[in-house]
Fold:
Amino acid sequence: MFTQKDLFAKALMVEKPFYIHEIQFDQQAGKLEIWIDFERGSTFYYEDKELGISGHFKAYDTVQKTWRHLNFFQYQCLLHAWIPRVDIGDGKVCQVQAPWEGHTAGFTLLFEALILELVKVMPVHQVSQIMNTYDKKLWDMIKAYTEKARGEEDFSEVRVVGVDETAARRGHDYVTLFVDLEEKRTIFVTDGRDQSVVGEFVGDLIEHNGAAENVTQVSCDMSPAFIKGVEDNLPDAAIVFDRFHVTKVLNEAVDKVRKAEVGQNPILKNSRYLFLKNRDRLTIYQHEQLENIRLYGLNLKTMKALNIREAFQQIYQAPTPKIFDKLLRKWYFWATHSRIEPIIEAAYTIQRHWEGVVNWIDYKISNGILEGFNSIFQAAKNKARGYQRSDTIKAVIYLLTGKLDFSKINPYYVTHSKL
Structure:
């Protein structure tokens, strides 16, 4: 028949040579404290890969430690244990790791598994308040887990990569994300957005069993830094300019035309978003506004610029690369003969990046997933605090968009994530 101590030992997965020594429940203080000891004369497994030492050793002495565990109903649960230190020879005395010990000082593995689930959907500060701990403690845990989980990553199958930057802090601080577009997950984050970031990515790729020559496609914007970085570090990769960023060049051109014309044509007043949004995203009222402008502003350069932009977007519906290239050439002739300077400049920009634009029809990859990841990160940043440090920013991006397998470093994570 189970005793109270046996029941708690089973629940906590405390196994020999450890056992429950004492249980103290203080309802007024809101705490359940459990004391764990070990059978005298027991041996303990210890391994040090760097020293090439592994085996079972007898306890040399003990150290008392405390860990925060999952709450017992509404009561905070603390585990206290005497943890042995073992003599591994040559005067070296090392501490054995308790089976329940987490990767953050003072937390159990089960408690950390719960925290990992919570911080994915809640601001860290809010989680720290709920769990009655400190923000810094949770940040340290998140960074430790993302670093350890990334150490287990294998990038040997990475072939198709998306690259984009996102604002890390107010001002002009940026980080660059590298995403495995096939697996739809962030695999590398680094400071800055110059050409050196691609070299850093390749270095990290190699550290995780990947290879530069394996990368066959890279989707990015028309940033000279990204282009140079890819050409220098990923020579076997075809550069594909993301259609969103290519269209953005034309959107900016259309907006320049509208701004130049709005002073002489009041009908264009308060119409900026009519010309920046695609028609299928306009409201009924906006559709009516645009039709009014079309009817009463037939000679507007802004309308002509919009028609040129919409025609460019239609090219992406081409069924074959040959037709795509043919339509793009016709469009280029039309745009460069439009007598609308911003549109002509945009057409020249596309012409200078012709190969990367045309490559889209062959590979049909885009940075849409990166735009989504950027939105996730910015939303988390806007409703939380603690995103000032570079290492914290990277850890949060990996946590939210990296699809890291924490079960490799915490055996209870998968089980807990299904609860």
Q: What stands out?
A: The chain is about 45% helix and 25% strand.
